[in-house]
Amino acid sequence: xxxxxxxxxxxxxxxxxxxxxxxxxxxxKYALLMALAELxxxxxxxxxxxxxxxxxxxxxxxxxxxxxxxxxxxxxTGTIPEVLNQNQGKQTAVINTLLKLRLDxxxxxxxxxxxxxxxxxxxxxxxTISEMPAKYLQNVGGVQIPFLYQYPHPPGNLILHxxxxxxxxxxxxxxxxxxxxxxxxxxxxxxxxxxxxxxxxELEAFMFGTPRTSLAQVTELLRKIxxxxxxxxxxxxxxxxxxDHFVPWVKYPRDxxxxxxxxxxxxxxxxxxxxxxxxxxxNWLERNLRYxxxxxxxxxxxxxxxxCSNRVTYWAYKQGVTIGSHGWLNGRTTEPLGHDCLKLIExxxxxxxxxx
Length: 356
Ligand SMILES: [Zn+2]
Fold this sequence. Notes:
Layout: H1 5-21, H2 28-42, E1 50-53, H3 54-65, H4 93-103, H5 109-114, H6 118-131, H7 133-136, E2 139-140, E3 143-144, E4 157-160, H8 164-170, H9 172-189, H10 194-197, H11 200-207, H12 212-225, E5 242-245, E6 260-263, H13 265-271, H14 278-290, H15 292-298, H16 306-322, E7 326-330, E8 333-336, H17 339-346
Helix pairs in contact: 2-3, 2-8, 2-9, 3-6, 4-6, 14-17, 16-17
The protein binds zinc ion.
Zinc ion (ZN) binds next to loops.
């Protein structure tokens, strides 16, 4: 049976949550999504469930990662050509396994396939996939949502649910594009890669972002307003603090004065691309009400209109509530975003609390 409209919408909503809230410590999950989508296109087309042997997925991984086992040369002065880091910690097992095949003399993937060590390498990669991305891919907001395949999976296979392969085929271009963009952003954001690719961030800031001088101004004001405490956890800020976009930049890439908060680097990183939980939302609304004048007068470089900010925030939370997103509370803790968030913002329409 071909998946109906409702099933497809559900699938897309889960997928969106996975990109927004899934924890991507390494690039494996992007690779797994791309592999599943490609294998769905390349396998015999049926609407039923699809059994994918781990070793077949592992071969896809080898294909995807092979070009990236070469040192990357950015051409930027002062950068060091090296193999890109696919993980925020030590290099991933998949890259290391493939590098061994290069050391054994393979220049191309086809040559690697003919080496004696190939099947062992594929088994190693298959094991890694099973222990890492297959386990964590469907983990969204700390909860396992097995909308793609059965988990735990039977040994040696991933079994895509009825209709999933069909939807992966339908949405292959979208999944491919989102995974690629996420993968590139992950590599770029990884501090271990800075020496290899150079300060790409500066180019991006130059083209679309916020001038550094203005950010210094934001930091200074927010330190005063927040009594030098982290907006999220309330502990004291060190010398270094991050200006965080309360409504994440990926959801609304525009600098609004009222949308800035100052936070620990750690808190900022943990919140990542998520919306903040209701408690933070309440604090944010109150802060903007209280310091509206200061934000307007001192951050005049930015659009400083509290109503506009509230409308953007309402829109972002409404989207989140509709697709069942979780809001970030602290550390790795998240909670479902409910209609109460929307009610909370509604009470602050026109920048003033309506009912108090
Ligand atoms: Zn903090």
